[in-house]
Design goal:
Length: about 170
């Protein structure tokens, strides 16, 4: 049987390699730094990612969490830092980069409002942007195979789980 968590972490490794390259490439445009939590929120993630992270966190000391003040807050954001940084979800690994994705049959680019304050659309291509659809599609397919292993149809293909639920399961 496929080792889904290992496949997930292989995907994470490839994403980390690419994001590291992109952060270096765009270093003059990127304001991201330790202590900035503008992108942090209670994201919802696919079950395969949720269970893979849960497994990793269960092997470590329990991270500090904080009570949610609003439904949007991430419970792992502690003193403006991520308490599960090494195991944070994929979406958190791409914060701040220029993200290229398809929207209603046209390409769109998303960037943090603090970064890339001075650029032309022509500055970006598939060579220097993060291909969000490509990796999301890989994650979607991996998740599809993963949820098919649950005996009773516990999850549908589009079910997502809020990160905050991890706090009560680790
Ligand atoms: S998991 Fe970490 S990086 Fe992701 S939203 Fe929460 S605090 Fe921020």
């Amino acid at each position: 049987m496929e080792n889904f968590f290992s496949s997930y972490y292989q995907l994470v490794t490839r994403i980390d390699q690419l994001t590291e390259k992109l952060f270096k490439l765009h270093k003059n445009h990127i304001q991201c730094k330790k202590g900035c939590d503008l992108c942090c929120m209670d994201y919802r993630i696919f079950p395969v990612e949720y269970y893979a992270i849960r497994e990793q966190l269960r092997m470590q000391n329990r991270p500090e969490t904080r009570p949610q003040e609003t439904d949007e807050d991430c419970v792992f954001l502690k003193d403006h830092g991520c308490a599960i940084y090494e195991n944070r979800p994929i979406i958190c690994r791409t914060h701040g980069l220029p993200l290229l994705y398809m929207n209603d049959e046209s390409w769109e680019l998303s960037t943090c409002e603090l970064n890339f304050t001075n650029f032309n659309d022509d500055d970006f291509s598939d060579e220097n942007t993060y291909p969000q659809d490509k990796f999301n599609s890989e994650l979607f397919q991996l998740n599809k195979r993963f949820i098919a292993t649950f005996k009773e149809k516990k999850f549908s293909e589009f079910d997502l789980i809020p990160i905050k639920e991890l706090a009560s399961e680790i």
